[in-house]
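Workshop exercise sheet. Pairs work together: one partner reads the sequence aloud, the other fills in the structure field after running the prediction. Swap roles for the next sheet.
Pair: D.N. / O.F.
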Amino acid sequence: MARTQSRGISTPWVLVAIAILIIVALGLLRFTSLYRSMSVTAAPSSELDSAAPGSTIKLVIEIANTPSSGSFRGKLLTKKTEEVYVRTNAQASVHWNDQTKLVMGKSSDVHTGAVVHVTGRVRNDRSADADQIVILTGYVKIE
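Structure field:
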């Protein structure tokens, strides 16, 4: 009787497939985490006015001036849908530095006309010290 040789999947290929699945799963977790951090609703201007100094606040701003020396000013935006924001009459000032985390962009993306989501602490003068800036330019529309 002749022996037949089985052609099964070899162990190294199974390990490679498992490693690829783990890498893809970790990438999806990272993307989901980033998406959730961006989808937080920004504070309306009245909330900024009433926030206590030192408290954390989230703002979406359309930058109105040319950012210089680590600060910028712009119009506050309110969220209509995930992709659409509406301009308000309220303005906000933001201070940032090399320690500020930039997400979905780089420092050169913080410019006049840019749309940014700022998470930071309220200062005594009602401006904010940014801990994180997410560049939303190109991802959202403004009405």
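Discussion prompt: The chain has two domains: 10-39, 45-142. What would you look at next?
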